[in-house]
What we know:
Elements: H1 7-17, E1 25-31, E2 34-39, H2 54-73, E3 80-88, E4 98-107, E5 111-120, E6 128-135
Antiparallel strand pairs: 1-2, 2-4, 3-6, 4-5, 5-6
Amino acid sequence: MSLEMTAGELTAFLNREFPQVAGEFTIEDLDEMRIRTRLRVGDAHLRPGGTVSGPSIFALADVTVYLAILAMIGPRALAVTTNCSIDFMRKPAARTDLIAECRLLKLGRVLAVGEVLIFSENGADPVARASLTYSIPPRSGG
């Protein structure tokens, strides 16, 4: 398998199809079946105490797997999350960007499974681990 979309193409796709999150996520590295992204943490991502909220961590995991899949299959906007499990393991560093490292474990015709480790920037230990399953629409579906 080879990449069907570059980091630049994925960023343009995300900005076009999901303008509500435009600029929040950055692709830092992309390879076959792997991607590393960054959530640029702002005030909207914080919960009391200045740490990143659980919903923001979920969004990072979800977007990261979505982009990893699209990188491999091309621009199919209607790929959707069908399952997600997250282990919140440590409190993220206050007001610090989060980095997600994803690898796709399975990329089939109709389902994809990805695993994500999320770190505070410059942190050695993950703050969260997520496993996500996506449903991939037929080629004619978008």
